[in-house]
Amino acid sequence: MTTAIWIAVALLLIGVYLSWTAGRLDRLHARIDAARAALDAQLLRRASIAQEVATAGVLDPAAAMVLYQAAHAARLAEDEQREVAESELSQALRAVFEEGAQVRAVHEAPGGQATTEELAAAVRRVPMARRFHNDAVRAARAVRRHRTVRWLRLAGHAPFPLAFEMDDEPPPALVDFAAEHRRAGH
After folding, report:
1. Is there a contact between 23 and 31 (Cβ–Cβ < 8 Å)?
2. InterPro entries, per this entry (predicted)?
């Protein structure tokens, strides 16, 4: 009789553990979905502001064209091309705003102060959103690597989570200019 009780307790504990693990995986996948939505929103915001700056008429025509095309490509990119398109937008932003002169030109245009601050905020938020997403992916991958999870297929039919890898380095001149003006109270 006691052996049957011990077996029942062991099965109950195994069932609780498996249920807890499956629930944890489900929460991690939900966290990945939320983080991806936040990342997508930040990327879209950055591309939209970049397009707005490119069409404002304050940049030289070549810089405006480069920035507009990169932002447009980033907004329209399919999932499998998204990382490349977003990296190209980052590179275009750094190329256009490599020097403080372009940043000052945007800042001094009508409505430019708000635009400069919005663009600086957008380029700062993208790396943070990407980091949150990739951290969630890393946590889910760690749980999914366990043999028990693989053997019993506790992840269900959820696709294996993929990190979002892109060049998200902001243009230093833009970030520095915005930080200076925030400190100065402009």
Report:
1. no
2. LemA-like_dom_sf
Of 121, 115, 40, 129, the C-alpha closest to 85 is 40
**Tens digits of per-residue pLDDT, 47-62?**
999 999 999 888 889 9
From the number of C-beta atoms within 10 Å of its C-beta (0-12, 13-18, 19+), residue 40 rates as middle
Q: What's the rounded Cα separation, in Å, for the pair 114 and 110?
A: 9
- Write the DSSP symbol of residue 171: P
Q: Are 149 and 155 in contact (CB under 8 A)?
A: yes
Rounded to the nearest angstrom, the gap between the alpha carbon of residue 19 and the centroid of all alpha carbons in its chain is 31
- Helices 172-184 and 112-144 pack at an angle, to 10 degrees, of 120
Inter-axis angle of helices 61-76 and 79-96, nearest 10: 160
**DSSP three-state, residue 134:** helix
The distance in angstroms from the start CA to the end CA of the chain is: 80
Model-level pTM?
0.85
Q: What is the Cα–Cα distance from 136 to 132, expressed in whole angstroms?
A: 6
Per residue in 4-16, pLDDT tens?
889 888 888 888 8
Quick one: tokens of 94?
Answer: 């750094």
Q: Alpha carbon of 72 to those of 15, 52, 129: distances in Å?
A: 51, 11, 21
User: Distance (Å, rounded) from C-alpha 23 to C-alpha 29?
Assistant: 10
